[in-house]
Amino acid sequence: MSSTNITPRYVTVPQATKMFSISKFTIYTLHKRGSIRMAKTGRRTLVEVASVEEHLRSNPVVRQGGIEAH
């Protein structure tokens, strides 16, 4: 049996900060601007992975030495 990496549809905010190397503040700011989608389930706030990936693809990150598509 081979192992495959399956990306979850939603992750917690702390998981998203690690997964995308962005801050908690940035995640909430992007959500407030309507750039990414989030969902509440009970007391947990979940971040839709695909919406963050799409935002990062369409908004390149400027880094020292050039532009990186994140």
TrEMBL record:
Residue ranges occupied by any Helix-turn-helix domain in the UniProt entry: 10-59
InterPro entries: HTH_17
Superkingdom assignment: Bacteria
UniProt-recorded name of the protein: Helix-turn-helix domain-containing protein
